[in-house]
Amino acid sequence: MYLILYVIVPLILDALAMLADVAYVDMLEGDTECHVRFNTPEDAQTVMKSHKDLQIKNNWKYEILTGDNEQRYWQKILVDRQAKLNQPREKKRGTEKLIAKAERMRLEKTQQTSKHIRFSEDN
Questions:
Q1: What distance in Å separates the CA atoms of residue 70 and residue 76, rounded to the nearest whole number?
Q2: How many helices and strands, by DSSP H and E, does the chain display?
Q3: Which UniProt keywords apply (predicted)?
């Protein structure tokens, strides 16, 4: 079960996670429309039942995708997945790969050591 949200505030996941288990939020940065996937159809129905509260609080409009709209969304998912898989990947071999790995490890280590621990004095 899927919902389309026409949103103004992009705090979708936090708001909906209080009501139901959200599997995925499909939204590009800057978009005002998104698709929310739930783990079960019952979760989508739960969100629909609390429709008035969410709509007033967040100024959202939403609907459950069915029929042709749902099929189009599944096609969009497949196209997006294929586009991601067909992206050219940078191939690193031999010493380049080792140098990149060592650089990542060095960066992680310096980030860990540069953290400051602050203690408050509560007497």
A1: 10
A2: 5, 4
A3: RNA-binding, Signal
What is the dotted CATH code of the domain comprising 2-85? Answer: 3.30.70
Q: Give the full edge-to-edge strand order of the sheet including 33-38.
A: 22-26, 33-38, 2-6, 61-64
Start-to-end CA span in the chain (Å): 55
Q: Domain ranges for the chain, please list them.
A: 2-85
Instruction: Write the CB contacts of 36 (distance below 8 Å, at least 6 apart in sequence).
Output: 2, 3, 5, 12, 16, 22, 24, 25, 26
3-class DSSP assignment, residue 97: helix
Its pTM surpasses 0.70: no
